[in-house]
Amino acid sequence: MTNIAFNKSRDLFERARKVIPGGVNSPVRYFKPYPFFVESANGSKLFTNDGNVLIDYCLGYGSAFLGHANPKIGAEVKHQIDKGNLFCTPTEKEIQLAETCTKIIPCAEMVRITNTGAEATMHAIRLARAFTNKTKLIKFEGGYHGAFDYVLNKAGSGAATKDYTDGILTESASKTITVPFNDIESIETIISKEENRDDIACIIVEPVLANTGLILPEKEYLNNLRSITKENNIILIFDEVVTGFRLALGGASEFFGIKPDIATFAKALGNGYPISLIAGKREIMSGFAPSGLVYQASTFAGNPISVAAALKTLEILINEKNTIYPKVAITCDKLVAAIKDIIHDKRLDVTLNSIGSMFQLFFSSIPVRDYDSVKSTNIQSFNKLFKVLLEENIFIPPSPFETCFISTLHNEEDIEKTIDAYETALSMVMKS
């Protein structure tokens, strides 16, 4: 096993803890005993302050689909920087981005450009409430839609590791109904209750749960969800912050052939630059101010830097879609198949879920299909796996409640090194 050191990162973390709560600016970045610090990134690699080179399967939690420091996107951003970075007035590029998105996103008749995934989902829910004149929403156990009051009920990502309820207004959370994923009967039961029948504004769902490890929708589940929402005049929101532009050019909606009423996007839209958007039907989207009475505003929304990055990202994806999407799927399938062979040969109680360019391994002998089944996996074994992989210069998200991602720049050498690392790590976990 390779032995790599993170001594400088340890010192940096001690400095950070004195001035930053917990030493990190997002809890998902922390792991014991301390996280490593990154100086730069390029392609499929992270370069730490300690001088280590890591093959990256976190990729900004799925953002860097076209690889870190993509030169084509970088050149476009540098060109825009010379022109200015914030005007707080409309720009033609915003129109170009909106026009492009309406062509490739199945439900997008209009779009509103925002900054983060959480901002997009928060305002999408408000928009649905205004359009339906209803108050309640349904979300799913393990679904993560941002860190705001009414979507943190049994949320995924870092919120799955502890009961993070401090500061949350109970009156806000009381309007949120949380149900199990892949259980259509629970949705039907909730909607049929008298107190809910005429007051459910929307159902918000990650069409592929990617913040609870990786959980795939079972056959016909999304189709049934679409049918139920139509029958009951409920807005269906696809949270495609992770799957958008990664699972397919038109996201999970294109991949599964299902059109929601509203969809939210972020991460891969700008290949890591801070940008997101809300897309949906014209009659619903027109509710946003100034054309409607749903107030959504932001100084940084549609800023030229992020819009330039998004335009170039989409240009690449559109021009090369027939190459990019099959390539990343084949790369992911090769890695997943090899890890499954290791699991089979070693007779391990391990489950591996994957779709497109996304995968995650769970220490469980049963299928992982919902939040409870992820919670029941052996998290201690996963933590050991993470540490050994890191020793082997492989970085995956440090939690089974996250997802691993492939970029277009992961090559055969990366995959072979990763396969070897997983074999070493799984062997060591089995012995411990």
Describe what this molecule looks like in 3D.
By secondary structure, the chain is an alpha/beta fold. The protein is 40% helix and 14% strand. It folds into two domains: 7-69 and 321-431, Aspartate Aminotransferase, domain 1 (Alpha-Beta Complex), CATH 3.90.1150.10; 71-319, 3-Layer(aba) Sandwich (Aspartate Aminotransferase, domain 2), CATH 3.40.640. The protein has helices at 7-19, 59-62, 71-81, 92-104, 117-132, 170-173, 184-192, 221-231, 251-256, 282-285, 304-319, 321-346, 371-375, 379-391, 412-431, and strands spanning 38-42, 45-48, 53-56, 110-114, 136-140, 176-179, 200-205, 235-240, 262-265, 276-280, 351-355, 358-362, 394-395, 404-405. Helix 4 runs parallel beside helix 11 (304-319), helix 12 packs parallel to helix 15 and helix 14 packs across helix 15 (412-431). The relative contact order is 0.16.
